[in-house]
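[SOLVED] Need 3D model of a two-part complex

Original post:
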Amino acid sequence: MIKNKPEVLAPAGTMEKLKVAIDYGADAVYIGGDAYGLRSRAGNFSFAEMAEGAAYAHAHQAKVYVAANIVAHEGDIQGAGDYFRQVRDHHIDAVIVSDPSLIEIAITQAPGLAVHLSTQASATNWETLKFWQDLGLERIVLAREVGLDEIKEIRKHTDIEIEAFIHGAMCIGYSGRCVLSNHMGLRDANRGGCAQNCRWKYDLYEMPVLGDKTELLGENADGKVEDFSMSAVDMAMIEHIPELIEAGVNSLKIEGRMKTVHYVSTVSNVYHKAVSDYCADPVNYQLDEALVDELWKVAQREMSTGFYFNTPTADDELFGKRRKRPQFKFIGQVLAYDAQAQVVTVQQRNNFGIGDQIEFYGPNFTHYHQTVTELFDEDDLAIERAPHAMQVVHFNCPYPVQTGDFIRAQAIEKPARVQR
Amino acid sequence: MTELIASVASIDQAEALMHAGVDTIYAGEDYFGLRLPHSFQRAELTTLIERVHAQGKQIQVAVNAIFHNDRIVHVLDYLQFLAQQKVDRITIGDPGAIRILHQSQLDLDYWYDGADLVTNSRQINFWAQQGAKGAVIANEVPYRELVDLVPNVKIPLQMLVYGATAIHQSGRPLLSNYFNFVQAHQDKLDRAKGLFIAEPHKPDTHYSIYEDMNGTHVFANNDVDLMTQLPKLAALPVSHWFLDGVFADPDNFPKIAQAFAQARDWLASQSLTAAKIADLENLVQANQPANRQLDTGFFKIDPSEVK
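Solution:
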């Protein structure tokens, strides 16, 4: 039994995702407010919504953090003191900040509000962690470039809380030290405008001081021209939860405030299960391969371990042809289950119908598979498919599914990227 | 009086730069500093410092890398060496290095250089509170923001007036990874190779890219040249003008520096006319590498255009 069980920290772009993440095992969630956040397109929270989210979280022994991690320009920080006080007074557990001006304002003008250093500040060594700890910060989100051995070394020198990304999409550069988007499209990467220019396909040239340019693009294994790109595969540390815990990481962070309920529920559930299983019995812990399979159902890209074990190679970037792999779509949520009649009532989220192979999954890592053989609408009329958003339908189901369980179905295969 | 700071590629070039009117020579070693024209090891740096001080000029040393554990443990020794050499100032971007400097109580001034992160006065004043004697302002801060920012800062600002703008630093060897994938050109990684990337469907764009021990660096499409904007810059005032020769021709860079020094002097004597600016601008253009374009970067951008 491990006492210092780390939290699983999930992204929550909306109130629904906040509740789902917590239901599915997240110990904490991070959200954006109306100001100072980097995800301008995520559904950001008003103060009232923060209070509602915090109340829900606290009732479930979970925490809520607000990301306020922009790098501010002159004039952007007006009102920040009042903002942080409001955040604190609406019962948020901490703010995640990277700009020292906002850190200073949060600490001096909103006493009592815990401050976490954002990964945008690229903290990569223990002296840096101590610098921020001396100023009163409670937690550091490490740069994604920090390896597992480095975390162990950092832990030897400091007792400040360490948060580390364990799953999701990654910046290819040091977070914060990238303004490709500013220069290529006047979109400020450090103020929520990142256009993900790193994932574009570029030409690559060589040009001597005197002379003409020569294209340097090479060919992939199929003999086709391979564009230059700077696009990272995603991170998945599911196979290394024991090492992360033993290294002294206090918070295991999942990326993706823009991601779906399907993603948030699945990934939160998987990591919650792995962490709980390991902490309950570290000696006999073995990775359940079903957890890995589960993550692949919501994967957008190939997955790797980032910088944890070595400097990433070509295998950690999106080069080469695309490979087909199973894709799953989120099709609905269980509204009710009649055990006696063995009938489930479902609210549709994506088109599904008779003949589809579906899978129910619930917060306690329950999974039931069946084929849809009949389908009825709210008027009890037999239908072939449920094509309407939020349509309520029912059908037979022999399994004891629970209200709130989610349903996914294997979609038509889409091409996915893979390394060689 | 405005101070001219120039990066340096060799000891000979330092002599030429000082002769051209540069006040402060900026140098360093790749292990501790970012994107330098030349990596000066300690013996060579010692000679450089002697030569600079012999001319009555100043030396500024780059300690502005993002340090991991393996390097942060060598920072104290390096700072002690720099203090011993009576380096006039250093630049730092990693707060861990600032902590080490504080604890060492060495007689060494530092300026904060967090690259693109230095964008508002309150942040700069935070670093002033942490002992910084100046700060290097991000290249993404337009003039219209500087107008509001400069009166609020408690320490002087250094700003790039000529040279390449770094826009991306990756900890990954992005060129090696690509070349390993296509099994070609694996030797074409360093700055001397003149590699650049072009945006999709924009074959004329030119973003220089190279690898070194600090990772992969990408630079803006055009180099910055604020010659025509110097009167506005001086009036703010931004007092420390930085000329970065990282992609300049080593022989021509001092000529560019001389043009800026001349402008600085004429500004001080209130004799810098539009015609003189045009002549100096022509001089800069004439000494710019043929394959690199110049523009004013973010200086003239309307802040409201940036999303």
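Edit: The two ends of chain A are 41 Å apart (CA to CA).
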